[in-house]
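At this stage, I put together one protein's amino acid sequence and its backbone structure tokens, which the following lines show:
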Amino acid sequence: MTAPHTRIRPRTRTRIRPRTRPRPRTAAALRALALAVCLATAAALTTGCRNETTPAWEYPRLAATLDSLSTALAQGCATPDPDHCAARLDHLEALARRAFTEVLDHRLLDQACLEADSAVRRARTLRLAATEQAQTQTQTQTQVQGQGRVRQDPRHPALEQARRAVAAEQAAYRRLLAALEKVRTTPPPGAPTQPV
């Protein structure tokens, strides 16, 4: 039995508003969670695919050095003047030495690399001798014609020989680059050539 003094309250319906937007804290938390999931997925994919895209034996540092050498070689000399090309060829020499050292570090050297390096050294020696002869010829011509500015004949044999020596050295660098690139991309014995 119920006591007469207690009243039963009828249930009133409270109006509940539907939420159309999540609360700001909840939205930020959801975005952070989604970002974390995306980053974890991307990291897993790149870690899993790293060995499929580039085999370990392709030596990425050597590849970067050879790319620098290739770019410097492609830019070439802006003018056919051997004096102007000396600095650019010296830069090529520094890059070639660095690439050759990396090849030695990885024990990748073969006969073609040695022959190409020898050809570069011979071409460099010939270019330095031809440039020296052209400079000597220019100084002699200056002394003969007086202190005024001497106009150099572009068809002068010494200048022509220096230009040919510069072109020969650039060609030797191209052959060295091709030999080093071939050694870099050749898989070692027993290495898988196809991605797993």
